[in-house]
Amino acid sequence: MSRPGKLALADGTVFTGQAFGAPGEVYGEVVFNTSMTGYQEILTDPSYCGQIVTMTYPLIGNYGANPEDVESSGLYLRGFVCRELCRFPSNYRASGSLDDYLKNAGIIGLEGIDTRALVRKIRIHGAMTGVLSTEDLDDQSLVAKANESPELAGRDLVQEVMPASTEEWDEGLSELVTEPITPGLVNNKEEPGDNANGPHVVAIDYGMKWNIPRHLRHMGCRVSVVPGTATADEIMALEPDGVFLSNGPGDPRPLTYAIDTIRALVPQRPMFGICLGQQLLGLACDGEIFKLKFGHRGANQPVLNKATGQVEITTQNHGFALGADSLPDNMEVTHLNLNDQTVEGIRHKEYPVFGVQYHPEASSGPHDSHYLFGKFFESMC
Question: Which of 139, 182, 296, 381 is most buried (CB neighbours < 10 A)?
Fold first, then answer.
């Protein structure tokens, strides 16, 4: 039996469709993702905390859900929107449907709306706050709630998704996401063992996707995961050979605790940052951040490696970026987005410290940028 649901935007636009997943009402920044696959990785990416995600690909859920393709311990997005939900998935790895997966996680889903119209509106007018509801179906009321809800910019969302304590990571990569170019052990199929003699990486978790520490383990590193609020002294007390700065949700500018920690660590250890991690690294080195109109979210973003001239097809998920002109003389832009020329990679000219705005660890792909993990490994040896 179908249930009605509505998505109301702060500009007064209301979309009516059929609800799936859990019942309820939520607000969030409405964004879109252009990936054709990988919806379970998107759902479990903590970087989507505070957002209602719309998929541009029209049919979602056809391979169901399983306990292996997860990037965190839960679902942190506010809501999920698609054109058509597949209610009868067919895949040998599936343990259930996407509908049941969202229902069990308490996440509201909405299908049957014109996602092309929604995405076009976001592209023209920018990402905006919306309310997704299966309870209040009054258009005027929902639009008013959208206008009264807080915007994503200026909020610290990291503390909603980061771990509570330090943990050791011991899981390696699945053979499903390794390629001949993936830095790692012989033939990329062997288990990494205890990695006792490998470089010790302290990964600062601001909402880290699990495929990142899996890559680090796969290369033979010993990995300690610390909360995003860890201080420089606490991190150095663990005696790391390198420091990793993870992805995470929202606006990096309120995260002054993280910026101060990174600033203190830059001269002391090799460092690699991804997504929010790169933004925080840029801020720690006196760069500036601005909000993108509608962000980069998808698995087909072309990025130019300025050193090699090669173009990498990348997975991305971010709504903020570093201003190239704001970076100091001791920082260099290494990668550029070919769609809008925004900064996709930076490096420090004096220390073995670098970052990228995209996701080289991306599962379910693409895998063009796996080499960056090898670059980090080499900097620690």
Answer: 296
